[in-house]
Write a structure and sequence with these properties.
The protein contains ten helices and nine strands. The protein is an alpha/beta fold and 253 residues long. Strand 1, helix 1 and strand 2 form a beta-alpha-beta unit.
Length: 253
């Protein structure tokens, strides 16, 4: 939830960060000036979040249906709120979301001053993002770091956060993360034999074997290929390269 954001572009940039992390419920509280075109321009592939955002007059209105509220801050606070770094926040938030239909909210303050006490009174806990000497973060960067921590925590549980808001348990889709690479499976040694044969034949055609012990060259080729732990596709690609080279050297097939 963005509390009194100053820059319309930051609203769009936060929406884009949320889309990256599968968080879909954006609330904007009392924006000081909001240019929707500017916000949409800064939210490529995430304009639906800008257009579908809840625009609220007060923080109390925005968090009314939430079970727990976290507030981001870069400053030390006098009151002894529970405070988390992003990973700790994510673990705590998921424990809250174990309850059916539970919702949590994260408050991000204005770019120029951060959250005021009138917003902080609605928070149960603080989120502090560790930084070097310069503690102030861009609004969208802060949202991305917090969202990434939650996304990674959900992935670690075997799911992907795809629920409206900062996640409802019932809305998660289980399974591997989108775009995750399949595990690398080296081909059995026998699958290397055709490649080794083509490699040696290509070296012979290129006259490389003249003056070299064929058995020693073959041993070098084998050691290189064994260390590479090629999979079936990689073997096929290399064989195709060698055939193309031989064709260019005047041998067909």
């Amino acid at each position: 939830m963005l509390v009194s954001p100053l820059q319309s572009g930051n609203v769009g940039a936060v929406a884009r960060a949320m889309k990256n992390m599968a968080i879909e419920d954006l609330a904007v509280v009392a924006p000081r000036a909001l240019d929707m075109d500017r916000a949409r321009w800064m939210a490529p592939n995430a304009t639906d979040l800008v257009d579908g955002a809840r625009y609220c007059a007060t923080v109390a209105e925005a968090v009314a249906d939430c079970a727990k509220v976290y507030a981001t801050t870069a400053r030390d606070r006098h009151n002894r709120w529970p405070a988390f770094e992003p990973a700790g926040f994510a673990a705590d938030a998921l424990s809250v979301l174990d309850a059916p239909d539970a919702r949590v909210a994260v408050l991000f303050g204005p770019e120029d001053a951060g959250l005021g006490n009138d917003a902080l009174v609605h928070a149960h806990a603080l989120i502090h993002i560790p930084t070097d000497a310069h503690a102030s973060l861009n609004l969208a960067q802060a949202a991305l770091l917090v969202g990434a921590a939650l996304f990674e925590a959900v992935r670690a549980e075997g799911g992907i956060a795809r629920a409206p808001g900062v996640g409802k348990r019932g809305g998660r889709q289980r399974g591997p993360a989108p775009g995750a690479s399949a595990p690398h499976e080296p081909a059995p040694l026998g699958a290397l034999e055709p490649l080794i044969g083509e490699w040696m034949h290509s070296l012979e055609l290129a006259s490389y074997l003249r003056g070299h012990e064929t058995i020693l060259v073959e041993g070098t080729v084998r050691r290189l290929l064994h260390r590479a732990e090629l999979d079936a596709l990689e073997i096929s690609v290399l064989r195709g390269m060698l055939r193309k080279m031989r064709w260019k050297m005047g041998e067909e097939g």
